Amino acid sequence: MSEITAIPYAIGIDIGSTTVKTVVLDEEHHVLSSSYERHFSKVRETVCGKLGELAQQYPADAMRVSITGSAGLGLAQAAKLPFVQEVHAAFLAVKERCPEADAVIELGGEDAKIIFLTGGVEQRMNGSCAGGTGAFIDQMATLLDVSVDQLDQMALRAEKVYPIASRCGVFAKSDIQPLLNQGARREDIAASIFQAVVDQTVSGLAQGRRIQGNVLFLGGPLSFLQGLRNAFTKTLQLDEEHAHFPEDGRTFVAYGSALSACALPDAYTLTQLQEMLAQAQTQTALVADKPLFSYPEEYQRFQERHAAHDVARSDYRTYAGKAYLGIDAGSTTTKIVLLSENHELLYDFYASNKGQPLDCIKRELSALYEGLSPDCTICGSAVTGYGEDLIRAGLGVDFGIVETVAHFKAASFFCPEVDFIIDIGGQDIKCFQIKNHSIDSIMLNEACSSGCGSFIQAFAVALGYDIADFSRLGLFAEHPVDLGSRCTVFMNSSVKQAQKDGATIEDISAGLSGSIVKNAIYKVIRARNPEELGQHIVVQGGTFLNDAVLRCFEREIGHDVIRPAISGLMGAFGAALYAQERSGGTTTLRSAEDLKNFSYTAKAATCKGCTAHCALSIIRFSDGGRFISGNRCEKGAGKKEAEQLPNLFEWKYRHILSLAEHQPEKPKATVGLPLALHYYDQMPLWHTFFTELGFAVKFSEESTRNTYYKGQSTIPSDTVCYPAKLTHGHIESLLEQGVDFIFYPCMSYNIDEGDSDNHYNCPVVAYYPELLMANCEKLTDSNFLHPFLDLNRRSHVVKALHTIFAKYASKKEVEQALEHGFAALEQYRKDIVAEGEEIVRQAREAGRQIIVLAGRPYHIDPEINHGIHKLIASLGLAVITEDSVAHLAQTPELQALNQWTYHSRMYRAAKYVTTQPDMQLVQLVSFGCGIDAITTDEVRRILEDGGKLYTQLKIDEISNLGAIKIRLRSLIAAMEQTQKQSSAKSEET
Hints:
By secondary structure, the protein is an alpha/beta fold. Helix content is 42%, strand content 17%. It has 34 helices and 30 strands. Strands 3-2-1-4-10 form a five-stranded mixed β-sheet.
């Protein structure tokens, strides 16, 4: 260390989660040298290597130094070198280079931050989640099998944008994969990925504070990606004068770090710095597990035991006879099998579809035809998986079979007495409890695919390994790292920390296998103990071909399981078995000649069939056929709507909207009521109250994605449920309509319906008006009235309302209008029950099964439910709601306090469903709803104790229903199986 007063140089080192940046300044703050390079988790080596290069330029010069960045603190402390917090470093750089900036947005590898500089200095950073950052963009590029630069070029050619979650890469995959499987343009998906990053920044980081004025954009992604820049400037409505993208944006924070160093007393030569960092001892906090296999012989016995479960094989090039084709168009992979009449495996294929399932299957079918024996005749074909509808339409496959049934068929082939199946695929986990040789309950991961095949694949690629090689590395790891069972993006940080702490790649590979298993058992299956799973367990899916995952699973549950040798092909194998069962001896599958001339084009469109405005993807095939996806009903698919029963979800929504038709002739003033939250339950009351008093009543606009965008900048929390987020847009909508005032009361209590411990509204529904008042700049005490009311205390309500509206009406008039409002609400409730009874009557006459679609009153909003009720109806089922049947049952014994009105209705509805042989309940749950952590367990228990299936659909702002359709079709298949068994029992007796 040198203590010299006249030191001309300062160096700033910014060590981020994925890159190392350096900047060398002279005493007048001119940049002499700057660098930016990825460290691939080899942080110390990369920094030391860079210092070595610089030492050749400045061999004897002393420099003041300061380190910054998310991965720099530990290294700086260990080497006893100065550290400056990265937000402060950015602040220093902005003050020096761009003092007119009002806000700074910086996106790094796994970090995102906003600094507000005017109107009160405020700094905001993302937490431990890397959603909406450079790592997220990297993951999405990998998913599309393109480089980040290619992703950027594709985005510039986009025609439309799809809503995609950017909370983390795994959620986004759940949104992107169905779009790819339905044939959406990859250019549009690329642009949607960048828009997702912008949305995450605006809603997740700005949290209600408006980003405006001069905005400075920093960090690698914003330096390299024009598509991302365009998305930011368009969303924030910034022109060239106000959007600043400095040329050295990627090293800007390192520049700030160097400025910070200029004020420090100590200086070092670059060689000294290199030695100090190389010798620094960082602390380790590794938690290690036992090795998976202690010695090679143990592994050999394990392999021999599992090799016993295999199928007979024959060669498709020489086989003579009938054959049956099974295709599994999975989320990330494509599997194909060809079976003989005697179930010999003639041909199999398993590979990543690289986001183009139709091209992949066409290519492989052509290869199959080329080598197929002339004496072999394909007599039937079936397809399952995410891409089922597209593949059937494009390639003429005979049958479609829902995934769950295909996997059950395959598992039963290997283990007729199977009582539990767990299938871990690319990005879904499917678990089936089997009773009496039929699927009794189905558990699927909700919308997050942490702990699936793509989870471990992402790490293998990031660490520079082929998935198969990476998996093998963990088999004999001496100290497998305990990484917990968190999701992929959180796990990134754990893996990087483990590497810094000295864990080997082998230890990390074994640790990730353990994480997959723990996630499946404790987060998807939610088992309290291993015995709950059953004694005859079949494991399948490509992920279980990984011996390390299989070994971890057996160790976790404490006994052996069956893994068929064709574990990764089970969906396709089950589809081939199904094709054989259903085949009439001929097939509509495209011939080899047809495939030679087969091609297709894809384009995006918006359906104008109803107010839902579904985003359609239209694929036209070379033979004139077409396939439409993204629609929620037959109308969108260009088909004539099949005869459907009335739908209570639709009826309730239309009834609420129709209230706006009734208005006074000479209104005293205009009141705005938002179509949001509790208003979907109480609108008849308040509409009647105001019109009786002589007010014109205006509703906010019908919800769309644009409604969300209208209020996006005022949303202070990214974790609140989507129905609450939409409320901000509804307030903006009413302000645009120029109403005299908005009336939106706070209500701790809902109306007491009896048969519950209490009758609260949830905290969001109860007090959201307070939050709106605090975050929406345009709201004032005069244009936004939000009194606290308890509708169970009529005299209190009359007094409170008269105080507010004294200049418009007397106390008597207020009291009378309120009585009429309550009467209208009571009539609305009776009408719901009557309409529900009529739908049930019609369904039973038509021999249809009935679904009680249970949720909150605001789930009838099409932007919130995304047309799930229409999807259910299109599958041939009748739809009623929980409040149409809740009065027909008493609340069963619960394990939780029954204190929420909306949830109490669900408990009673669930109890009633257990008494009806032709009914099942499907529960809608909004992401971010804390109370549902309790209610979902209670509803599940009530239904399962009553011999019913439990189906939960989690919904948020993402409208793709691919995974939801699979879940609903699985439910229908299980219902049909139960019906068959009941009929068989009746015939026996």
